[in-house]
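Table S2 (continued). Query chain:
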Amino acid sequence: MHNIYFLIFRRMRRPLLALVLTYAVAVLGLSLIPGQDDAGNPWHMDLFHSFYFVSFMATTIGFGEIPYPFTDGQRLWVTFSLYATVIVWLYAIGTLLALFRDRSFQHALTEGRFARRVRQLREGFYLVCGYGETGSALVAALTERGHRVVAIDIDPDRVSLLQLESLRQFVPVLAGDAARPDCLMQAGLKHPLCKGVVALTNIDEVNLKVAITSKLLHPEIKVICRSDSLDVEANMKSFGTDYIINPFETFASHLAVALQAPGLFLLQSWLSGSPEYRLQEPVYPQSSGRWIVCGYGRFGKAICQRLKREGIEPVVVEAHPEITGMPEGGYVLGRGTEEKTLREAGIEGAVGLVAGTDNDANNLSIIMTAREIRPELFIVLRQNRMENQAVIDAVEADMVMHKSAIVANRIRVLLGTPLLYQFTSLALHQSDAWACELVSRISALVTSHSPDIWELRLEPDDALAVCRGLEQGRLIQLQHLSADPGDRRRPLECIPLLLKRDGESFMLPDPEIPVKRGDRLLYCGRAAARHRMGWCLQNIHALNYILTGESVSTGWVWRKLKRHGLLGRSAGESRSGE
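Corresponding output:
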């Protein structure tokens, strides 16, 4: 608001001075020019009546000459004043209209509205810096789950695009530089309800500045940053950044899991995918044999390091080693789009190919050329731009690395279901047979799309009925929470994945384990099971039926009818008596 007032007074200073001066001269002249009353006696208009006459004269309404008819001298002065005031008003109005069209003024108004909306937020929210491919996917995922989001992006076109999006929640957005602390402050960095800051710009240095500013101005806040550089990542860690996501390293670790335990990789893919995603088919990359990596940039380096840890010595194909750096153990000079280059790299005896350049057209050309020579290759494709999704799908690669999707999906899990992040981390220490068994259980619940993932805390806000039952000393087991409130003998289509209690985590907990207040639970299953579970958690009568099999009539009319024997046994009582 201070910027708005400053701009108004700075631009309107001359027009306002001109208005004041013109009116002052007109009023003073009218009061000095002699007139005549009805009797013909000399008369001077006082300053009040002069000001009054000049004021309504400027509106061109015309109340007539007051209090007596004017003399020719007064009428001449009024004519001069009339044109002078009209001209100065046109000057002032023109300047005011130009001010409203000024970009700096419009930006100041936008910033004022944005800051006011952020101050008026009454729910916890996340501050997302950067609304590119990654940011847009993350904002859509968070708002779909009911989370409040505030966004910043330096590109006005992206800001306009966000305002046109049909999101579930309204998202205040500011066109500004996230590297500036004042922009972060306007976006609610120090707001008491700000739950976290996510830096997703395509410039690592900007993400680093966001992390530093956030930790210095709001030390207890959760900060998640994207980083494509190991040096910047190390710098972020020194400032206490909570989570740093490197898409290249993340995908390389996924590939390593697929090489070691395909079932565990499939489990992670199913649980981490959004419910609208179709279930991914299992992949079986060869953990021995020749792998060819085309492109030795940041992605290629991460893949080569992971493959070497798995005992695989990859063959690197790089067109500009003087820029990317010389690969260890030699390389083949070329882009990989030429048959000669691939044959020189040993494509005839290869088991896997990584098309990892920063050009989608080259990556597609590499794959098509390689498949003509060796169709059974395991293909890993790097996707650089979202608009190429149709041709990427058409090539049917075994694994696709799209860094924006990887970062957005990882952050969505961290913010939306943090227990899932803990579960997948613990699952890495399990056997592949354990993962395959869990995949079979999940496939029995869902058929085509990823399962719905939700977590709950046994507190009055999420489970009022359960907390009251525990306070009354009732024994409530984990299996009771997943019983169908319509038929307690039928379990809901969901699986408890993790129970966290007093700092300890229990994977796939026993259904007969008693629950306690404060427990945190992670479930996967159908969305319908999640909604029906809410009855058991919040409705004391539904919980009582699940625990005892007795269905209590709570309405006054139903109780009267039942008391006089006019109502038969309820469905719950019939089932309990069978």
